[in-house]
Amino acid sequence: MKTLMLISFALIGYSCSEKHLLLNADDFEMNSTKMTHNKNAFFVSPDGDDNHDGSIRCPFKTLERARDTMRVSSKKITYLRAGIYARTETFILDLNDNGQTWQTYPGDAINSAIIDGGGIQDIIDILGGNHITIDGLLVRNYTSRGIGVHGGAGWNNAAPYFNTAYGPAAYNTIRNNIVEDGNVPTPGWDRAGINTQGTVPGTKILNNVIRNTTGYGIGVWSLQSGDNISGTVVKNNVLLNTCTTARDGAAIYTNDRTILSDSIFIENNFIRDYGPFENYVRAIYLDDHTSNVSVKGNILAGSGRQPILVHGGYNNQITDNIIDLGSTGKLSVLNYAIRATATMTGNAFTNNIIISSYPVDSAGGAYLKTGDVVNPVIEHNLYYNYAGGIANTGGYHYQLKDAFPLQGDPKLSGWTYAMADSSMAYASPVSFEPIVGNWGPPGFNIPETGMSPSCLLPGSNDRYLHAESHQDMQGITKYGMHIRSCDNGDWVKFTNVNLGFGFDQFTVRFGVTDANAGKRIQVRLGSPIGTLISELTTTGTGAYDAMEEQQAPMSSVTGIHDVYIVFAGGSGVGNVDYFRFH
User: Fold this and answer.
1) What 3-state DSSP class applies to 250?
2) pTM (2 decimals)?
3) What residues have CB less than 8 Å from 368, skipping those under 6 apart?
4) Is residue 123 part of a domain?
5) pLDDT for the residue 371
6) pLDDT value of residue 277
7) Last residue of some domain: 70, 92, 118?
8) Which member of 72, 346, 419, 542 has the lowest number of beta carbons within 10 Å of its beta carbon?
9) How far apart are alpha carbons 407 and 353 in whole angstroms?
10) How many angstroms separate the CA atoms of 530 and 522, rounded?
11) Residue 147 falls inside a structural domain
C-alpha cells in the first residue's frame, strides 16, 4: 500500500514541472495533523519553480514569489526546504507582510535552509513590518546585517535601508537562526549580525547563534526622537568570535539616546571571544543612556576589553552572571561611565561570579569608573582566581569597590561553566540563580573552541605589573589605563612583587614615535638606582598611542622585592600600558 501511495504522489509530482522533485517519504505521512500543517503553508525550495502553486509537492523557487503570494492569501507561513538560496539583493519584508512566518521546514534539519548573501550588505530586512517571525534559518556572508529590523525615522549613517523612514516595526521575532561569516568594515557601527533600529518595540531575539563576524553580534539601536526599543528581549543566544575588527562595540550592543525605553532583557546568553583588547570592545554594552535593562544569567568569557560597559544609563540591574576575565589580568569587569548630564541612578552590580586565571597582578580588574557619577550598588559578588593570584574586588585607581565581596571557589567546570550543586555561590549572600542554558537553536552544542575557560586552563606564572597601578612614582603622569611623560630619571615603584622562582624575560607594552626610539626602560630592585636586572632599548612603534609588546632578557631573581621601573636616555621614552616578567 505504501509503495502505491508513493507512486501516486510521484505521478502528481510530474505535473508540477519537467523537473520532478523527489521528496522524502516522511513528507507524505497520512497524518491529519501534518497534512493540515502542510496545507496551511507555502513552500520554497532551491529546486522549485515560481510557476508552481507553492505546495509541498510543487514548491516555489524564490522567496519573493512566496512573499508576494502570501500577501494576497490567508496562509501566513512559508517553509523553506533544505538547500542553498543564493542572494544577489536584500530580501525585504514590510507592512504588507505583517503576521508572516518564515521557517525551515520542520521535517528538515533545523538551519538546513541556507540564505547565502554572497557578500551583499543586508541579507534579510524587516522594514516597517509587524509580528513577523524568522525561524531556524542559516544566514551567511553579509557586509552590514545578516537579519535586520527597522522602523521609524531613518538614521543617515545606517545605509542601506536603515537610513530611510518607515512605519513602526513592532513585535517581530528572530529565533533559532545561525548568522555567520560577516565581513563588516571597521569600525562596524550601525551594523550587526542581527540588528534592530528605530521604532522597534517588543522585538524578540531568541536562541540564535551569531559567529565569526568582524562586526557586532547583536545590535539594538534607538537613536532619535520617536524611536522606541521598549520590550526588547535578547535571550538564549550564542555569540562566538564576534567584533574581530570592530571598534568601540560589543557582542551585544544597545543604544538609547532617547532615554525613554524600558523593560529590556538581556538574559541567558553565552558570549565567548568578543574582539581584541586594543579595539575597546565589550561583551555587553549599554551605550548612550540605555536604561531599565536586566542583564541576568549570561556567561561572558574569552578575549575582549571589558565584559560590561554602562554608559550614562539608569535602573540597570546586572546580576547572576558568570564573568571570566581569563589570564590577562587587565580587564575591568564593569566600565561605569557618565555620558553628558546623565544621573545614572538605580544601577546595581550584584550576585555575580567573577573568575580569572592571572597570577599576581594588582590591577586585575573589578570596576573602572570615569566621570562624576552616582555610584552603582556593588555587593555580594563572588571572586575566584584559578591561578592563585589576586582576586581583585576593586578599590584601585579609577575603580569602584565591592562593598561586600566574597572570595572562594565557585566549583565551575567545562566549556559551559557547569557549577557543582555544592558551590558556595548558591548560598547566601550571593544566592546565585542557576544558569538556564538551552542556548541556540534546538540541538546546538557550545563548541570547545576559542579562548579556554579559566576553570580549565589556569594562567601561566607570568607577573603583570600594570603601569597605572604603581604604588609610588617620580615624574610620570597617569592617563586612563596607561602612563605617559616618561622622561630620563623618572620611575614607577611596585611594592612586594613576587618574582617566584625567577624569570628570564622582561616585556613592556608601550608606544613611542620612531623619532624618539632608542631610549631605555630598566628594571631595578630596591630603589631607582638599585640592582639592574633587565634593560630594554626601545624600537619605534609609529606613535605614542600605537602600543605593542617588546622584550629583553632578564636576570633570574627569586623571592619578593620592591621593583622599580626606571626610564633613561632622554625625554619621551614612551607611553606604557604594562610590564610583564615571564
Assistant:
1) strand
2) 0.85
3) 306, 332, 334, 335, 336, 398, 399, 481
4) no
5) 64
6) 85
7) 70
8) 72
9) 10
10) 11
11) no
The sign of the dihedral angle between the CA atoms of 418, 422, 424, 429 is: positive
Q: Which amino acid is at 504?
A: D
7's enclosing H/E stretch is helix 2-14
Residue-level pLDDT at 388: 76
- In 380-437, where do the E strands start and end? 382-385, 406-407, 412-413, 418-419
**C-alpha cell of residue 515:** 623619532
Q: 3-state DSSP call for residue 381?
A: coil
Which pLDDT tens digit goes with each residue over 298-343? 999 999 989 999 999 999 999 999 999 988 766 778 888 888 766 7
Q: Which residues of 122-154 are buried (b: 16+ CB within 10 A; e: fewer)?
A: bbbbbbbbbbbbbbbbbbbbbbbbbbbbbbbbb
Q: What pLDDT is recorded for position 2?
A: 39
Q: Any idea how long the chain is? A: 582
345: cell is: 541612578
Q: Show the low-confidence residues of the chain (pLDDT under 50).
A: 1-14, 17-34, 362-363, 397
Instruction: Write down the pLDDT at residue 21.
Output: 43
CB 381 within 8 A of CB 406: yes
- Read off the DSSP letter of residue 526: S
445: CB partners within 8 A, 6+ apart: none
- The alpha carbon dihedral of 479, 482, 485, 489 has a sign of positive
Domain that holds residue 504: 463-581
Counting Cα atoms < 13 Å in the Cβ hemisphere of 301 gives 28
Is 360 within a domain? no
- The residues facing 153 across adjacent strands are none
Residue 330: per-residue pLDDT: 67
Number of domains in the chain: 2
pLDDT for 33: 47
Question: Phi/psi at 7 (nearest 5 deg)?
Answer: -60, -40
The SS3 call for residue 356 is strand
Separation of alpha carbons 309 and 337, rounded Å:
8
d(Cα 386, Cα 410) in Å, to the nearest integer?
A: 10
Short-list 299, 315, 307, CA closest to 261: 315
> By CB neighbour count within 10 A (0-12 exposed, 13-18 middle, 19+ buried), where does 50 fall?
middle
Q: Which residue has the cell 546546538?
A: 444
Looking at 43, 70, 97, the residue that finishes a domain is 70
> Does 525 fall in a domain?
yes
Beta bridge partners of 264: 293
- Please give the distance of CA 88 from its chain centroid, rounded to a whole number: 28
Contacts of 88 (CB under 8 A, 6+ apart): 118, 120
